[in-house]
Amino acid sequence: MSPRLDVDSVAVINRQRTIVIDTGKLQRAVAEVLARCDEAGQEVTVMLVSDRTMRTINRDYRKVDAATDVLSFAMREGPDGDPSGQLLGDLVISLETVRRQWPDSFEDGRPLTGSAQRELALMTIHGVLHLLGYNHDSDAAAAQAMIQRECELFEDTWKFFPIF
To answer: What does residue 116 show for φ and ψ, rounded to 5 degrees?
Structure first.
């Protein structure tokens, strides 16, 4: 049985027009991931964008002039962050990148996803874990802990994500 879901705490905004996706199913899937992280009710916004928009956001915020799959903007961190607040943060996802990269394997222990649906699940989980403070860039132990948690959540939740 799944933990209690709070679907209303997740907002999905589809700002891209290339790929048709069931945003309601994505909303429920993100709520499922949050519940399994004991974060049900925490507010998350997921914005689906084109590669072009993702490239602009990535360039503006990370100084990387390329599209990427997912960016996380945590609201609990930084000088203005509120660690006790209900607002967890924002995810920006490029469905074009997710669909394009699913056949590729990761060299860090993450699973080969095998479909766009499963790739979306893995990238969304990856983003949520960043919102929760996981960081794969700090050291090898932290990276391994993040990958292990990603794999656990992925196996438990990928089936809730929409097919596209």
So the answer is: -65, -35
